[in-house]
Write a structure and sequence with these properties.
The complex is a heterodimer of chains A (about 450) and B (about 210). With about 450 residues, chain A is α/β, with parallel strands linked by helices. In chain A, about 30% of the residues lie in helices and about 30% in strands. In chain A, helix 2 crosses helix 5. The longest helix of chain A has 28 residues. The mean pLDDT of chain A is about 90. In chain B, helix 3 packs across helix 7. Classes of the chains: A alpha/beta (about 450), B alpha/beta (about 210).
C-alpha cells in the first residue's frame, strides 16, 4: 500500500518537473523581442490633405500578444497617439509641421523594446482655391462678402489659399463660369496653373436678412486631380431665432453675426475633418423615412461603394430644390464613411455630354450611361415634392421627397424611400426642438436615410 | 317620510299603454337599425378578373395618374406614395418613374394617364413589363362643410395586363373627409400624407386580396 502511494507521488513529482521543464524550455526558445521596422506608407513631405498617413511597425519575438504604442513628436514635444494591439497607426496630422514617430512594443510578460525616432516627416499646409459662391437662394445675397469672410476664416485656421488674381486669371482663361462643381480636366488645369491641391466649393442655399435672419450654406472640399474626390462636405442652416434664450437675449439680429456663426461652424468642421477628429453624428430618429424598400437580408455592398448623385427631379415650388436635395444626399453619403461620392461637377458634365434630360426621374439607359461613365456602384436620385422655408416668424419649414437607388449589378432599383417632415416634428413642449430652416431638416432627413441604409 | 308605493309586477313593466310588448318593440327597432346599416354599408369597390392568374405579374409600370383636382402635381405625389408602397410589399417590382416616362415617350403615347389598348401592348413591349397601372385622382386637398374643414383623398386605379390590354383589377378608395367629430368639435382632420398613405394602403390590400 505504502509502496504504491509512494510510487504515485514520485509519478506526480516527475510530471510536475516535466511540465516545469517544458515551460522553461518554451521560455528559453522564445526569441527576444525586437522591432524590425517602422515606417509610413508614403514618403515625406506630404500635404495634410493626403491624410491619413499609415505608420506600420513590424516586431518579432517576445511572448504574444504584442502591444504597440505610437508616439509622435512635434514642436510641442512627444505625445502618445495610439496604444493597443494594432501594429498600424493611421495618422491624421491635421496641421503642417515636422514630425518624428517612435513605437514602443511590449509583449505579454512585460518585455519592452522601442524604436529610435524616425527621420523627420514633413507635413505641408495644403494650398486651397476658394471658388466664388454658387447662389441657389433665389435672392440677392452678398456673395462676395461671404466669400471674403470664408477666406479670412480659413486663413485664420492656418490654411494656405490661392491668391484671388491667380484664380480669376485661371477662370477667365478657361472660361470657367460654373461654380457649382469641377470636372477632371479643369481640376488638373487648376492644379497646374496655381499649384492648389484642393478646391473649396460653397453653395448658398438660403439667405434672408428680414427678421428672423436666415442663412444656409453647403460647403465641400474637392481634391484637384484627374478624378476629383470629395474630401469633406458639411452644411449649416441657421435662423436668428434658433436660440432666443431668456428675454430674447440669444436672438441674432445682425447679418454679420449670423454669417460669422455659420462660417465658424463650417471652418471648424473642415479643420476637424482634416485632423481626423470629426465625430460621427447621431441618427435623428424623428427623421427616419416613412417608408422604405430594400433588401431584407443581403447586404447591398461590401466595403466602400461609389455613388453618383444627379440632381433630383423637382416637383416642388422651390427653385433648385432638386440640386439642393442632391447636395444634402452627397453630404450624408460622404459623412457616413461607407460611400465615395462622385463630384457633382463631374456628374453635371457627363449629363451634358450624354444629353441626359431626366424626365420624371432616371431611366435604365440613363443609369447605365452613368454607371459606365463614373464607374459607380449605385446611382441615387429621386423626387422633391416640398422644400419650403418660412418667411417671418410664423410657420414651419416642410421637406417632402422620395429617393431611389439603382444598382450597377442588376440595373434595377434596390432601394427606395419616402420621407416628409415639418420643422415642428420634434417639438414636445413650447418650441423646444423646433427646426427653423429646410436646410437643417433636409440634412437630418438625408442623414437618417443614409444611416439606415448603411446599417 | 315618503310612503313607498306598491311595487309593480314584472309583467306590468313589459306592457306599455298600447298593449305592445317592449321586448318585441326592441327587436323590431334593432332589426330596422341593422337593415339600415346594411343598406348604408359600402360594397367593396374593387373588381378582380377571376380568370387572371395574378402570380404571373412580376413587373409593373405605374403610369402617371390623371389629376381631376385643382391641386398642381397632386397626382405625382399620390403616384409616388403608391409606387413606394407597392414596391415595399416585395410582391412585384415597380419600374422607376423615369423608365416609365421613357417608355411613354418611345411608345408615342399621347395621353400617358389613359392609354388605349394598343398603346398598352406597345408600352409593355418597350418596357418589358407584365402589367401597367393607371389611376385617376378624383379628390385631393381640403374640403369644407360649414365651419368644419378636413383633408380628403379619393383615388381609383386600374391594372391592365399588357398581352391583351385587358383590365384585370379595378379598385377605388376614399379617405379623410369631415367626420362627425370634426363637425362637433372642430379640427382639421388628418394630415394629407397620412390619409394618402391610408388610401394607397387600402388599394394595395384590395389588389393582393384577389
Amino acid at each position: 500500500m505504502n509502496l504504491s502511494r509512494c510510487f504515485s507521488r514520485v509519478k506526480g513529482i516527475a510530471l510536475l518537473a516535466a511540465l516545469l521543464l517544458t515551460g522553461c524550455a518554451a521560455l528559453q526558445e522564445t526569441p527576444p523581442l525586437t522591432i524590425q521596422s517602422l515606417g509610413p506608407d508614403t514618403i515625406s513631405p506630404q500635404s495634410s490633405l493626403k491624410a491619413p498617413v499609415v505608420w506600420r511597425a513590424e516586431a518579432t519575438g517576445g511572448v504574444p500578444p504584442l502591444s504597440y504604442e505610437f508616439l509622435c513628436e512635434d514642436s510641442n514635444g512627444p505625445a502618445l497617439r495610439q496604444q493597443g494591439l494594432s501594429s498600424a497607426w493611421p495618422w491624421w496630422p491635421g496641421r503642417a509641421g515636422t514630425y518624428r514617430i517612435k513605437v514602443v512594443v511590449r509583449d505579454r510578460i512585460g518585455n519592452t523594446v522601442q524604436s529610435p525616432w524616425s527621420p523627420e516627416f514633413e507635413i505641408t499646409r495644403p494650398l486651397i482655391a476658394v471658388l466664388p459662391l454658387q447662389n441657389l437662394s433665389r435672392t440677392k445675397a452678398p456673395l462676395a462678402m461671404i466669400r471674403t469672410e470664408i477666406i479670412s476664416r480659413l486663413k485664420g485656421a492656418g490654411f494656405d489659399l490661392v491668391a484671388d488674381p491667380d484664380l480669376q486669371r485661371f477662370m477667365a482663361r478657361h472660361r470657367m463660369r460654373k461654380v457649382s462643381g469641377i470636372n477632371g480636366f479643369l481640376a488638373e488645369k487648376l492644379k497646374e496653373a496655381t499649384g492648389a491641391e484642393a478646391l473649396l466649393i460653397t453653395t448658398l442655399e438660403l439667405y434672408d436678412e428680414q427678421p428672423p435672419l436666415k442663412i444656409a450654406l453647403l460647403c465641400r472640399l474637392v481634391s484637384l486631380a484627374q478624378s476629383p474626390e470629395i474630401l469633406w462636405v458639411d452644411s449649416v442652416g441657421l435662423a436668428g431665432d434658433d436660440s432666443p434664450g431668456l428675454l430674447g437675449l440669444g436672438l441674432i439680429e445682425e447679418p454679420e453675426a449670423m454669417r460669422s456663426e455659420a462660417l465658424e461652424g463650417l471652418v471648424a468642421s473642415l479643420t476637424r475633418s482634416l485632423a481626423g477628429t470629426q465625430k460621427p453624428r447621431f441618427l435623428p430618429g424623428k427623421f427616419m423615412p416613412k417608408m422604405t424598400h430594400g433588401p431584407q437580408e443581403d447586404k447591398l455592398w461590401q466595403g466602400k461603394a461609389r455613388v453618383a448623385v444627379p440632381p433630383f427631379y423637382n416637383v416642388s415650388d422651390r427653385k433648385y430644390g432638386g440640386e439642393i436635395m442632391a447636395l444634402h444626399f452627397l453630404e450624408a453619403l460622404q459623412e457616413s464613411g461607407r460611400f465615395t461620392v462622385v463630384e457633382p461637377g463631374v456628374v453635371h458634365d457627363e449629363l451634358l455630354r450624354f444629353r441626359i434630360i431626366m424626365d420624371h426621374g432616371i431611366s435604365i439607359p440613363q443609369a447605365e450611361a452613368m454607371f459606365s461613365s463614373f464607374d459607380a456602384d449605385f446611382v441615387l436620385s429621386g423626387k422633391v415634392f416640398d422644400y419650403q422655408d418660412t418667411k417671418g416668424h410664423w410657420g414651419v419649414p416642410m421637406v417632402d421627397f422620395s429617393a431611389e437607388m439603382f444598382d450597377n449589378q442588376n440595373r434595377q432599383l434596390v432601394w427606395t424611400s419616402k420621407s416628409y417632415n415639418g420643422g415642428s416634428d420634434r417639438v414636445f413642449f413650447f418650441d423646444w426642438g423646433r427646426i427653423t430652416t429646410a436646410s437643417s431638416m433636409a440634412a437630418q432627413m438625408t442623414r437618417a436615410i443614409i444611416g439606415f441604409l448603411a446599417q | 317620510m315618503a310612503a313607498a308605493g306598491p311595487r309593480p309586477l314584472a309583467n306590468d313593466v313589459n306592457i306599455i299603454e298600447g298593449g305592445i310588448d317592449v321586448r318585441f318593440a326592441k327587436v323590431i327597432m334593432l332589426s330596422v337599425i341593422v337593415a339600415l346599416a346594411a343598406g348604408c354599408s359600402l360594397s367593396p369597390r374593387t373588381y378582380h378578373d377571376q380568370n387572371m392568374d395574378f402570380s404571373i405579374i412580376q413587373t409593373v409600370a405605374v403610369l402617371p395618374f390623371a389629376n381631376l383636382t385643382s391641386h398642381k402635381n397632386a397626382e405625382d405625389r399620390v403616384r409616388d406614395v403608391f409606387m413606394n408602397m407597392l414596391l415595399s410589399t416585395g410582391g412585384v417590382y415597380v419600374l422607376p418613374a423615369g423608365e416609365v416616362a421613357r417608355g411613354i415617350s418611345r411608345s408615342q403615347i399621347a395621353d400617358g394617364a389613359a392609354p388605349a389598348v394598343e398603346e398598352i401592348k406597345k408600352l409593355g413591349a418597350v418596357l418589358g413589363t407584365d402589367a401597367v397601372i393607371t389611376g385617376v385622382l378624383k379628390e385631393y386637398g381640403e374640403v369644407r362643410s360649414g365651419t368644419a374643414a378636413a383633408n380628403v383623398v379619393s383615388l381609383s386605379l386600374q391594372l391592365m395586363e399588357v398581352e391583351t390590354g385587358r383590365v384585370v383589377w379595378v379598385g377605388a378608395s376614399t379617405k379623410g373627409g369631415i367626420s362627425t367629430k370634426d363637425r362637433l368639435l372642430g379640427g382639421g382632420g388628418q394630415p394629407m400624407n397620412t390619409i394618402t398613405e391610408e388610401a394607397v394602403s387600402e388599394l394595395i390590400k384590395m389588389l393582393f386580396k384577389g
